[in-house]
User: What shape does this take?
Amino acid sequence: MKQFHDRVAVVTGAASGIGRALAERFAEEGMRLVLADVDGVALAGVANALGVEGATILPVNTDVSKAADAAHLADAAWSAFGAVHLLCNNAGIACEGVPAWEQTPETWTRILGVNLWGAINGVRAFVPRMIADGHEGHIVNTASAAGLRTGPFVSPYYASKHAIVAFTESLHFDLQLAESKLKVSALCPAFVKTSIADHSPGFPPAMRARVETGMEPRVIAQRVLEAVREEKFWILTHPEFDELIRTRFEGMLQGENPAPHIFGATAPID
Assistant: This one.
């Protein structure tokens, strides 16, 4: 996708973190924005701030885990702007840091609902219309380096992010076979300075510290813009984790047991 000015972008999880940074970066390119988040108050604040700067914004309070909300978001986007060219299924949440056997059914439902079903619902609500419109376009699904590595204590999060990577890769093939003009990317950042841990009181302290000192969201947003322009599938934003990813897959082929790395940190989570 080469043209951004006056095109329409939809961003979920847009009230903070990577989602807000994406909205700000797309606004700089002159895109019209449909911004979604479950936090309506924070979303309104972002929309107002960008509107003051001259961007055309439609905020839509949305729970992406609900198919009906995703469908409403799509209806609102087409009603307001008549098309969608860039869809960022970005909403995501973390979970408590406890062993897999202590993760509750409620936690699994919440994490998979937002992280995985949010992307699935977005694709189901938007992609058929985007294909039918016949425009050049792009879908970005926010996964994580956690979709390429694993570790202890946050199994629902790892599972959701691995599933998003697989879902997005399969979508890539589906679009090719459909001879669609749409392209797709899997965004796989590691630690980014967001508020994701603040909504999970039991988030592992070691991981929380890495988030607090992580990459600035605006850097991620720039990488996403470049990947969309260059039609790149993989958006791996933290090269310092490349060797860990490589080691994991090489270990599989060699039949080795998983290494006890936690996003590159060999120290235990306390």
